[in-house]
């Protein structure tokens, strides 16, 4: 008891003076007094740190009754709870926040967010979905859902990260222990996606290395072994598709890991990929920030150059016509909205926890609402620009393919006329070879009815619209489509180097964001790892490299497509739902609103102010 007396004797009590009656018999009028909050930390029991000690007055310690009214009619507001949290914050937490590293400037922070958001799925998935889901209608519906779903999700994760200064695991644990599993789910998703995403980056590096060969290896079919005969499988498809499946992937017809061994050139590219990632991450935010100036800004420059070049190609306008065709009936399809929601999750990438991790290194006074709008609209700009490039190039390719079909049919008719199988009046005019797109249809329509019937039995159908429908899906569409585009350019080696450097830098910036989410979560969960950042980075990269070797088997591309198309979307959908539940019902919508707009004048000044 003496220890308690010594501790309590050092306490000071700030008591408000009780007003005295001015006249005898006058009633004392009690006033509501707002209790003052002390800035000193609460005293705790060393044996039970979670329970604050009860402080007794000297009269209480001597066993005397000390009656006092412990209740006040003052109504506590949300600001008071904020003050309590500030007043009771421990010195250890303040030291931890102070010692946390930060981005060198706001530009590097935005580049990190944008680089993680604009990934390879922006390059191949968005044009593919746009083509099969209504063209311009898909872009309009995507922009609408981005405003009402995508951007609020970005604001939620950015605000949580910069407010609590934690990674994904630490943020959701701090909000509620019941929702700590959300952070662990995001952590696991980051690991799985980074594992197979590094394989896609390794494909880009393989194409980049092959771009220095002259002629390019995907521009012509190879010969069979020890013969002058071209590979018949390549002739049935195209050199670019043959190179993709047989030279790069060495794909098998069965999904079986027991079939074949790891592909050596993919193992080498994968090792170099993780070596590059490790070097970029090992020095922390300072080295990563400098790398982002190249890996984020350079792809936009390349995309703009490609857009200018493809718009000058023959048939580019035909491709853009199919893009800008507003097929309103697709808006009534649930599949269209399902794919739009999937693309929101894949393109803007909420639910991974990387936005939370990246935002935890920015001051709390940062305006995360503006950042979310900037990242979302720049992501949309990159998607639309890439779609314009792809559709212009597809228009050119089907135009060339249709023109070759016209000339092939004309040559076949001339050969049959020479052999006496068709009458002489079926001969095509000489002008057809100068302008086959216009003369071919006039020639066919001008034939007599019986001759036309005989001729059409031996001709291939040449239709640009039908040719345009034959578009492959999956991550391979970026590589096959761009290799087809490069093959027709003058100076194809130069354009090949530029394009695959584009794909490599886009993939690198995205995987750096995934790694930031992984390493930050580990350091927040185990603070002792912050003293060994370099060792932690190397250990994580080595482990991820060994895990990624699973995707170097001949049949592993099938598993990669299954993960990318089905598993990831469902996991992210569940994560973002739980994030919204934790934020709205536990952390509180009002608290989230104040976290989003710390520097603005009031809640109503925020662009996305919650309705009252």
Strand and helix map with partners:
Layout: H1 2-9, E1 44-45, E2 48-52, H2 58-61, H3 78-87, H4 91-99, H5 106-117, H6 120-132, H7 136-164, H8 168-175, H9 180-210, H10 232-236, H11 239-248, H12 264-281, H13 285-311, H14 316-324, H15 334-347, H16 354-359, H17 368-418, H18 436-445, H19 449-456, H20 464-469, H21 476-487, H22 492-525, H23 533-548, H24 556-596
Antiparallel strand pairs: 1-2
Helix pairs in contact: 5-13, 5-17, 5-22, 6-15, 6-17, 7-15, 7-17, 7-24, 8-9, 9-12, 9-22, 9-23, 9-24, 12-23, 13-17, 13-22, 14-17, 17-21, 21-22
Can you put this structure into words, describing what you see?
The protein contains 24 helices and 2 strands. It has helices at 2-9, 58-61, 78-87, 91-99, 106-117, 120-132, 136-164, 168-175, 180-210, 232-236, 239-248, 264-281, 285-311, 316-324, 334-347, 354-359, 368-418, 436-445, 449-456, 464-469, 476-487, 492-525, 533-548, 556-596; strands spanning 44-45, 48-52. The chain is mainly alpha-helical and 612 residues long. A two-stranded antiparallel sheet has the order 1-2. A hairpin with a 2-residue loop joins β1 and β2 (48-52). α9 packs across α23 and α14 (316-324) packs across α17 (368-418). 64% of the residues lie in helices and 1% in strands. It is elongated and about 90 Å long.
Condensed summary:
This protein is an all-alpha fold. The protein has helices spanning 2-9, 58-61, 78-87, 91-99, 106-117, 120-132, 136-164, 168-175, 180-210, 232-236, 239-248, 264-281, 285-311, 316-324, 334-347, 354-359, 368-418, 436-445, 449-456, 464-469, 476-487, 492-525, 533-548, 556-596, and strands spanning 44-45, 48-52.
């Amino acid at each position: 008891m003496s220890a308690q007396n010594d501790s309590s004797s050092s306490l000071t009590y700030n008591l408000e003076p009780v007003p005295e009656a001015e006249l005898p018999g006058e009633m004392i009028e009690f006033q509501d007094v707002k209790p003052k909050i002390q800035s000193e930390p609460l005293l705790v029991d060393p044996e039970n740190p979670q329970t604050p000690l009860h402080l007794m007055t000297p009269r209480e310690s001597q066993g005397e009754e000390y009656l006092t009214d412990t209740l006040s009619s003052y109504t506590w507001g949300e600001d008071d709870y904020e003050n309590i949290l500030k007043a009771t914050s421990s010195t250890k937490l303040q030291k931890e926040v102070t010692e946390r590293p930060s981005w060198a400037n706001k530009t590097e922070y935005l580049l990190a967010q944008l680089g993680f958001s604009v990934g390879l799925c922006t390059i191949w998935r968005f044009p593919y979905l746009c083509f099969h889901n209504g063209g311009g209608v898909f872009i309009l519906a995507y922009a609408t859902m981005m405003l009402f779903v995508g951007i609020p999700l970005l604001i939620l994760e950015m605000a949580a990260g910069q407010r609590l200064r934690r990674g994904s695991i630490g943020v959701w644990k701090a909000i509620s222990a019941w929702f700590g599993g959300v952070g662990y789910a995001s952590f696991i998703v980051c690991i799985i996606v980074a594992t197979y995403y590094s394989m896609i980056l390794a494909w880009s590096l393989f194409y980049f290395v092959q771009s220095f060969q002259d002629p390019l290896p995907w521009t012509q079919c190879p010969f069979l072994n020890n013969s002058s005969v071209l590979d018949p499988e390549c002739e049935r498809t195209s050199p670019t598709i043959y190179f993709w499946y047989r030279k790069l992937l060495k794909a098998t017809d069965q999904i079986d890991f027991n079939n074949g061994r790891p592909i050596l050139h993919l193992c080498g590219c994968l090792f170099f990929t993780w070596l590059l990632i490790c070097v970029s991450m090992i020095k922390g935010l300072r080295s990563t920030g400098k790398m982002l100036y190249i890996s984020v800004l350079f792809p936009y420059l390349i995309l703009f150059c490609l857009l200018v070049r493809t718009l000058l190609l023959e048939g580019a306008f035909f491709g853009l016509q199919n893009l800008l065709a507003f097929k309103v009936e697709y808006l009534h399809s649930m599949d269209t909205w399902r794919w739009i929601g999937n693309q929101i999750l894949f393109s803007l990438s909420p639910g991974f926890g990387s936005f939370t991790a990246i935002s935890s290194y920015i001051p709390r006074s940062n305006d995360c609402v503006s950042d979310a709008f900037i990242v979302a609209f720049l992501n949309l700009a990159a998607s639309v620009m890439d779609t314009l490039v792809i559709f212009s190039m597809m228009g050119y390719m089907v135009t060339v393919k249709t023109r070759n079909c016209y000339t092939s049919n004309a040559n076949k008719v001339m050969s049959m006329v020479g052999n006496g199988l068709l009458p002489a009046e079926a001969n095509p005019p000489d002008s057809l070879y100068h302008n086959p797109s216009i003369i071919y249809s006039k020639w066919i329509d001008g034939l007599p009815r019986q001759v036309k019937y005989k001729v059409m039995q031996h001709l291939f159908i040449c239709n640009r619209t039908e040719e345009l429908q034959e578009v492959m899906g999956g991550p391979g569409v970026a590589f096959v489509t761009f290799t087809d585009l490069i093959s027709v350019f003058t100076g194809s080696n130069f354009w090949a180097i530029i394009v695959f450097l584009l794909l490599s830098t886009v993939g690198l910036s995205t995987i750096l964001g995934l790694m930031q989410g992984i390493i930050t979560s580990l350091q927040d969960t185990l603070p002792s790892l912050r003293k060994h950042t370099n060792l932690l980075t190397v250990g994580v990269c080595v482990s991820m490299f060994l895990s990624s070797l699973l995707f170097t088997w001949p049949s592993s591309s099938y598993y990669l497509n299954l993960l990318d198309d089905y598993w990831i979307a469902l996991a992210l959908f569940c994560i973002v739902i739980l994030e919204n539940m934790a934020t709205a019902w536990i952390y509180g919508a009002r608290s989230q609103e104040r976290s989003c707009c710390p520097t603005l004048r009031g809640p109503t000044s925020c662009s996305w102010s919650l309705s009252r």
